[in-house]
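Morning F.,

Quick status update on the modeling queue. The single chain you submitted on Monday has been processed. Sequence for confirmation:
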Amino acid sequence: MNKKRVAILGGGLSGMVTAFYLTDPAQRDKYDVTVYQLGWRLGGKCATGRNEDHHERIQEHGLHVFMGAYQNAFQMFQELYEKAPVKPFETWDKAFTKVNKLTLMDKLPNGEYVPWVINMPSMPGTPGIDIAPDIWGRMQQILEWIEEAITHTLEPAFGGPDPSKLPWWKRMLYRLINGIEHGIAHAATILIREALELIETLVYDTNQHSSHHHSMLAGLFEGLRSWISRRAAKNMHKDADVRQFWIMADLGLTSLIGGLRDGLLFDPDNNLERVNQMDYKEWLAFHGAHEETVNSATVRGLYDLIFAYPKGDWTKPGEVEAGTMFVSLMNTATYQGSMIWKFNTATGDMVMQPMYDLLIQRGAKVEFFHRVDRLVPSDDGSQIDKVEIGRQVKVPEGGYDPLRTLPSGQRVWPDRPLYDRIIDGDTLKASGADLESHWSKWKDAEKPLTLKAGEDFDEIVLAIPPAAHSIICRDLIRQKAAWRKFNSTIRTTATQSLQTWMSAREPDLGWDEPSLVGSYDITNLNSWCDITEVLNTECWPASADVHSEQIFCGPLPCPDALPPSSENEYPIREQELVDEGGQQFLDHEGHNFWKNRFGLGGPAPGVIKSIYNRANIDPSERYTLTVKNSTKHRMTASGSTYSNLYLTGDWIQNGQNLGSFEATTISGKLASHAISGYPTDIRGVDAKALAKAEYPPRPVSTPGKFVSHNGMSTFPGPISLADTTMWAFLIEADHDRMTDYCKQMFDDPSGGAVKVRPLTSLMMMTIVDIKDGRFKDAPQMGWSPERELTFWIPAVRVEDKGGREVAKHFEMVMPYLVLDNPVAIASGREIFGYQKQRGWLSVPGDEGNEAGDLTVDLFSTQTFGEATQEQRHRLLTLSHKGESDHSLLHEISDFAGAAKTLWKHMHAHKGGWHNSLAFDVELLGDLLHKRVPQLFLKQFRDVSDGERACYQAITRAMGEVTKFDAFPKLIEWDMQLEHLDSSPVAKQFGIAPEQKLHGVRLTYDMLIHPGEVIWQC
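Structure tokens below.
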């Protein structure tokens, strides 16, 4: 059975989860999976590195934890630890430390920040193993918590005063009104009991759910909220416990009221999009939340948790979709075990190392140092035809082994490439280049790799985040409205992290509160966590005096769009900013947490033993935001609009739609499910809806096998042309006539699917003398020489855009080719579609050609007529008149330089490009990379109806220049272009048949690669 080839672009968590499930034994070895990854490590935002210069300290991108409601992440992690051959912990549960308390920095009305400890009780069950509870059960617990607070825990604040401490006359008055007070408290209890009874009915009989019941429940919650607000008002600014209870009750009840009123609990599919037009804070205020609640530490902490600050501007209120946040909070409320599960080692070592080792064991391949540069769609928009990949370094024959082993035996990811495992790694090391940086100056060590549909892959999984899409998916964005909308709507932000290693533990430093801290919005480093647990997997000696480790994170101010890759100093500037920001935090804010060892000016000497600052600015590191009205423009795993392209990442439609381990894991599962139907158990989401084939799969049609036999003159594979001399000329022609030809050959047959236009009124004419031509895959055929005359139209494929024809791809169109090699004529016509004709050519150095002229004869009909014999006729004579130096030719050192010179010359000719054209970026990418794209109409006459084509396609071949040299002489010629009725070159294109020309002489080697079909009838 032939395996289906799946190319996964990007080795972040979601791409690896996709690979994990595609290679599961349940798939029965149906998929051949290859992951292409930039740089030396896997993980994306979860990637970590061990710094061997600092005792193998762990360097993270930021703080990562699991939440107790991460059903899919836990399930995947448990499966991974059951199957992985090597892992840092014996069992999955030993990888975590459970956290049941956290601290929010509560901003009081006077502007002071004080710790607010949030207790999160342990809940029954184990995430990933046990079925999660539903939100209705949690709703009951919220109401019971409120009832406990107002009737017992905080009863003095919500009940009446203590009568024994009142004067006699007040005791008498109290007795008179006590019944009223008791009635009011009893009224709150009645509201809670009525709500609990209604919820219990809805829990046990889902058929009872209706908008009416949800409205009734919302009314009960509104009454309860009003009662709490009135009773708490008199005490909340005098009693911190009352104030914090009131904020939590107001937030919880308002969220439930809004969810019920807006139909998010009754019919979310039909209501979520409408609610997502509002920001979460706006939505809370709309449904009656108090202003103090809306601006409280609890709400600010939610925004901080997901970096919900466009452009990283943490001084602004922030923005996140109301409906998406509500759904996330409802999911979070169903946690099992602990609310938060901290990691006991590096994120990459805990997750990505066992994942990598398991995938390799299963036969998957991971190609490190492979940078995805471009996805190229077919012209009809049906599929991805090619993926262009830059190869950053050369690796040995057996590939690159990315992991190191610590003395403890743990396999870990390094914080830099393992230079001794790279060919010429010393050069890379000496350069200091960051191969993960979009702005790196490093030049790729190997020529680009092009993956082709049907040859190298059957399916693609795009697992690279949206910040990179404007670069790698630029063709998709231009071609499809859905991609343009997605690209313009989804926003991302850079983030910042700081890690510290200190000489004392938290209590000795002066911090006695729970050390998972949020909402400290004095600075962009608004959240931090003690992660001392990971010290056990680092290698600090006793002499280093390291006893605790902390990590801080927050948004980093940044532009929406990435600076251009040429702005090489951008990472340096950003690193300087985060270094400065990290130091300012420690100097000016540290004393608020560690009062025993920090003062107003910073830490005492020797307290901080090591510091690591990180600016997460690269495309794969930026955090995807969920700004208002954006989720509806996200695509599903199979909703790319291209039949062989699947999507995965926390940026697709995944039911969570906020950046998290859970959303990323779900997305990886959905991509695998969309391709294979497995896994079937994706918890908490409608996998059928989110992974269905929204676009019809491309038709499967396998061409018949070519029947080879003796006497063949055509062979598959590349064709090499070695030791070639070319004489090249530019000739003035008629632009309209060239346009007519292009339309006749491309626009008309394809019905406008392929549109081609000449660039200028210049045509190129070349004569080449090939000394050694070979079929690379048929070495038994030997070699043969070849000479040819070619008339070229420098052209572009265009698309209509805004009333103009925009040039998208540079192409060379060849209306006439005359050559003397019968094998080259047959193979050119049959395989590619070259318009080749039989001819005879004489070049300087031939016997009898002492003048050094160039002549071409053609087997043709000179004058049409029944009595006319087809025979050899002269088509072209170029009489050599002399040579002269030209400074421009001295500047050409390589083929790219020649292409640029030609481009500038054509642009300068008579006002430049034709005024009908507008130009897209990177039009000249092929030429600058030593590639000459050639476009043909390949067709065969039908055997029964010669006026029709039995096969017709627009094809493209790429000639790769492998060796090049230009002679620094400009050669003068007299041209005589004869008229032949069967090949009226001059008449057809408006070329003056007699004129003086200047030309150049070049030498090169070229490889003609197998072509591709752009359009087929």
